[in-house]
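Q: Start with the shorter request: fold the first protein.
A: Done. Sequence, then structure:
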Amino acid sequence: MPPAAVTNLGYKPPDGGWGWAVVFAAFISIGFSYAFPKSLTIYFKEIQEYFSVSYSEIAWLSSVMLASMYAGGPISSILVNRYGSRPVVMVGGLMVSAAMVLSSFGTTIMHLYLCVGVIGGFGLAFNLQPALTIIGTYFQVKRPLANGLAMTGSPVVLFTLAPLNQFLLDSFGWRGSFLILGSIVLNCCVAGALMRPVNKLSHPEPDNDSEKYNGAAAEGAATEDSSTQPADPAPEEGQKERNGQSQASKFIDLSLFRHRGFVIYLTGNVVMFFAFFAPVVFLAPYAKHQGTDEYSAAFLLSIFALVDMFIRPITGLLGNHRWIRPKIQYFFSFAVSYNGVCHLLCPLASGYEGLVVYAVFFGLAFGMLSALLFEVLMDLVGAHRFSSAVGLVTIIECGPVLLGPPIAGALVDIFGDYKYMYYECGILMLVPGIFFFIMHYYNYKKLDEERRQSKTGEMGTSEEMTDQ
């Protein structure tokens, strides 16, 4: 595998200026992408009664929407690489709006699966990937902070949409609410309009300090993959094959599967995402199972979202610290492990007070992990390959995202108790956390060796030129 990719974009990212407007736009776009599927659960009971379907059938609505959002990642990445972030986000906002309007006229649950789940999910994919990608073009030194602020959009929008959806449901019913939500989500089009491409001509010089902040910068120009710059002339047939690969790489970079850091990230995340959303989905039902009233159970989610809201920007600030930034992968490994420990200890919480304590610590853990989730991927592969990387990651993760909550729910049905579900989620988070610690130690060690070899080779070349 080649070493981590250099983050040299050919220009110096401004690290501010209009970039903060782009962060605000990403805040809105990412917020709707992650919060919208969760907030729609408020309408489930009324829709379930209207169509006379089971709880499991209605629960698939959010799962299909989230899975479609992840499955649409590669398509979104291809469009971003071809057209840029601005038009893709605006089209995504129009798609989600159209999906909600069309679903308000639905006559069957399958109609909602198609409109809300598939069309709406793909629209959210067109909002998520471009927002994550464009931040890397505007920020280098302050990128963890920018990513942390943008990712804060998820709990803020969820905290806002939850009571708003309840008010709309009480006032207009689910059909009228879906029409109104279709207009509200058009704010994603406004966010897309703010995503102006970075002016590379005004910052022509590459940032020489990038190596100090980004572990991905350990690869020097001399250590590029030989498949991209062959040393010897190739036969005509081989040249055509390389040209075809070059054309394909313009859309999505499949060579990432030979990238050591990317493979480590992907392997751990596939396991982790089986347990990523289930504890949030089952928090309120678990509280009700213990005898907590409905309003108090719902308040646990508010506590969780409030803590999550504040910890994300704080995590961005910590990730930007000069002591943490060079080894930020260890910070991410800690966040994953911390989530696992929280879930393993959850069944020990007694009474409502214990669940409040769990909601606080879970909000801290979930917010830390969410704020670092895409920052560490960009740190591994570099900003210029991030669009393709996030597209490949999301298409592979859509399986665990779709199956994770139903598997967790099946454990509750089998044992009649939620504690086994939380034990399962804890193990599925703790094991990848330990895996990340070990493998990133190995990756950092290899990067140091490759950097030393590169410098030794450059010194040897300079001495040879001097002798001549």
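Q: Next, the second protein, separately.
A: Sequence, then structure:
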Amino acid sequence: MEGSEEFMKYRSPLVSRYASKEMAYNFSDMKKFTAWRKLWIYLAKAEKALGLPISDAQIVEMESHAEDIDFAMAAEEERKLRHDVMAHVHTFAHCCPAAAPIIHLGATSCYVGDNTDLIMLRDGFDILLPKLARVIDRLANFAEKYADLPTLGFTHYQPAQLTTVGKRACLWLQDLAMDMRNLQRARDDLRFRGVKGTTGTQASFLQLFQGDHDKVEELDRLVTEMAGFKKSYLVTGQTYSRKVDVDSLSTLASLGATVHKICTDIRLLANLKEIEEPFEKEQIGSSAMPYKRNPMRAERCCSLARHLVALLANPLQTASVQWLERTLDDSANRRISLPESFLTADIILSTLQNITEGLVVYPKVIERHIRQELPFMATENIIMAMVKAGGNRQDCHEKIRVLSQLAGAVVKQEGGDNDLLARVQADPYFTPILGQLDAVLDPTTFVGRAPQQVSRFLSEEVRPLLEPYKAKMDVKIELEL
């Protein structure tokens, strides 16, 4: 059947099902091999500027063919030569006959391979950072809106003291803000491999420039600048240190852990019917149970975040087994682990942005859950009120203990509602404080400084973090699947 060939072989769902166009392009063959050609052009320009016999015509010829890559020819050359870089040198030389003698002059394969990887890592971070900023922005708006709404806190997933819906969102935001700083730091720490030669000694370039060390240093600086980097690594082996990959991917794995926690919380709250992710009018939750509203986007985030966290094992092991100046057992692994980490992070941020743009809160359900638990939590306040009214603390404690156990039995053994408040109201002992019970049981008096903490946290730590990304805030995410 025409056009069915693509369905006859494995396609990564990261690209075919989930990833954004910009991140899929960032790790594409087109981006990779045009970057190689640009790097050969930068090298030739810098070598020419420093006095090597390279003509303007050769540079112009290379520049005019920077993007018209004959992938079929490159594949055929690689089949013959068993070397991807030389295959592309030959392919480039074929359409640049005048420049052919000076393409890749003095360079090793890692000149194009590693420098392109660093460009892709940098550009990958530049795609992720605005997406993370938008997630933080949406959650900050959510936290601000619900800063005062009391809700049951949970420790051990058991009802604990009250917090607010907004304060809980700030727990998520704090982790995301740490990820923001980590990603920015990892991006800013990236340097260029530059022009270092086969074992990192720059020997071939020293030979080209007849022993002139200053020109070799200037060559490195010029190419680094043309590629858009402020610095290059002063020492490399044949490759840049694979700890750079560890630094980059560890920040993404840490982001994965954050997103997994946030989306797990959303899934738990969806079960309680307190908060739900957005749900389309025609969306089907279950093929068998028409009433279901499964948190499928949060589940997708958790599923992919797990993959993102697991990917960190690859660069850690790769960095630890790079023998001496380098060994090639990093190559196949990095072709998978580097793109997959960025693609996966990209998908979970897009999905989480979509979730946070449409989170649904059910205040009446939240209020009902508070009513079921608050009488137990308010027992200390009831005791204090009775003591102020002249009662004995120990007597009151015993009364409350007995009534609490009876109410607990109704809830747990009979499946009824918490009736502790009714029992307190019906017991003549508590007559002196009946008029105070509504005030004693007001949920807003149980949230401590949660609203104030939300306000201060958003103004001091969250909003300033978003300032550099203000121009990119308006993008909304519509999920295709």
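Q: Describe the second briefly.
A: The CA atoms of residues 115 and 436 lie 72 Å apart. The radius of gyration is 31 Å.
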